[in-house]
Amino acid sequence: MDRRRSSQEMAINLKADHHRIIADLQELYCCRPTPEIFERSWTKDAVFEDPLSVCKGFHEYAAQAHDTYLQWYAMPKLFSASVTLSSRVMSSTSSPNRLVFAQTQEYTYRIGGQKKVIESIIVVDLDDEEKIVKLSDQWDGKLPTWFGSHFLRRANAKVAPWLVHVPRK
Fold first, then answer.
1. pLDDT in tens, 70-128
2. Taking the model in full, what pTM does it have?
3. Distance, CA of 130 to CA of 133 (rounded, Å)
């Protein structure tokens, strides 16, 4: 007797707000940031974390450059294209209000045209209003833990506002 589950049985039921968050994140990862996405889906003090940077919300930085947003606005300057090759929701829970998904993204660098594929586990923590309070993008399922990595990631978050313009409403 074959006891394999069908893909429909294994499908995760997503709330409408979690669908919206995933759609907004897909736009960001495909280098299409808009102020509306951040108003709709991010808190003002949200934390963004990946192996290159740790950005800790609006109040830590100058009012005109919200670093969480800045990381997304920098991507179109670095990459001529970004395509989601695959995406799969791994978990969607209400308590804690969290969304976890695996994603494979292909980036094409503006200079040289080289392509880079990054496989990530993305953990998104949401507040009661279904807005992102923390996004952790773990390349190859992990964040750097070597000595000094946190300092360099914070430094990157501090320097980037000087290099990238974030549009105002």
1. 667 778 888 899 999 999 999 999 999 999 999 999 999 999 999 999 999 999 999 99
2. 0.77
3. 9
Distance CA 16, CA 29 (A): 20
The whole-angstrom separation of Cα 131 and Cα 72 is 17
Report the b/e string of 19-39 with b at 16+ CB within 10 A.
Answer: eebbebbebbbbbebeeebbe
- What letter represents residue 5's amino acid? R
CB 108, CB 80: distance < 8 Å? yes
**pLDDT tens digit string along 16-40?**
999 999 999 999 999 998 888 888 9
Prior bond of 167 cis (ω within 30°)? no
Q: What is the pLDDT of residue 22?
A: 96
* Rounded (10°) angle between helices 149-159 and 67-78: 80
| Beta carbons within 8 Å of 101's beta carbon, 6+ residues apart | 22, 87, 88, 89, 90, 121, 122, 124
Tokens linked to 168: 């105002």
Count of residues for the chain?
A: 169
